[in-house]
Amino acid sequence: MNIDKIKAKRDAMKSQLAELDAKIEKAKKDTQAARHKEIISLINKHNISASRLREILQREDEAKQMPLALPIESANPADQAQGE
Predict the structure, then answer these.
(1) Which residues of the chain, if any, have pLDDT below 50?
(2) pTM (two decimals)
(3) Which of 7, 9, 23, 83 is 20 to 30 A from 57 via CA?
(4) Residue 56 domain-assigned?
């Protein structure tokens, strides 16, 4: 009896996992489609070349990946000596 319950739970979890995987894939496709639509809109709106737009978007993506703040080093030499 317990084995049957465990198998049923396992099957239910597999089904839920498959549903989540499908939702993730759909979200990825929707995001990509929205990005393509945005790119086409920018090309048409600003009358720029695709290569120039690609360059701009690449810079934007690189900027998003950069850390927001750099660590601040102490001006106190005693603090710096402790860190070494």
Answers:
(1) 84
(2) 0.46
(3) 23
(4) yes
